[in-house]
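#structure-requests
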Amino acid sequence: MLTSFRGRLAVSLAALACGISTPALAQTVLPAEEVEDDGTDTGAFTISANASVTTDYRFRGVSLSAGDPAIQGGVDVAHDSGFYVGMWASSIEGGPAYGELEFDVYGGWSGQLTDAVSMDVGLLYYAYPSNDLDVDVDYWEPYASVGFNLGPAEATVGAAYAFEQDSLGGDDNLYIYTDLSTGLPGTPLTLSGHLGYTDGVLAPPLLAGDTDDSGLDWSIGASMSASILEVGIAYVGVEGPSIDGFTDDTIVATVTASF
């Protein structure tokens, strides 16, 4: 989530390597609305926002900024029932087909199933409003994840499925991933690891010109928070041909402010 998913796919710097570079966000709680005529308390809303600069926008291991820095940011609105909506944007270098901007809109539900288990389900829409070609490249992707509190560590397993769409060439794409993070006792550091698997039209080897339509991406990183800022660094890699500034292994650094 980006409070939920976008941030595609686990919160904090663990999400950075798999396409989500959003931290746990500061929150502003709006006062609860008055009880409606039917006696239903509509509850309170939470607004959170973030802005970041990253040395390379890696989405599931693949660079969408041609290996160059990117500016990113988003806003989420969540209800205390667990339902949320949000938007997130990043500068990209997508050429004539995708342009220079990715704009994501999403909504879903997240909440605790037990004290140690949480769930997040939703729908994400990827839009590229600055593309210069008269072609449809926007696409939809439902997602779901389950989080586990393992004492000093946290783990997430999830999946995202982009069903067959014209913008994907009439093909589909399945992404399965797991994230693990833990704080280092006595330090402000959090270590994170990520492993993802893509099967379909967005597989890293296929995007790099290979015939294989499946492949892994991975990362290992560390982050540190102070006040509204989070600074992180991660080593990111993917399977398949190594293309400089696209699918090559790299180190990504990110600074994020949350409000």
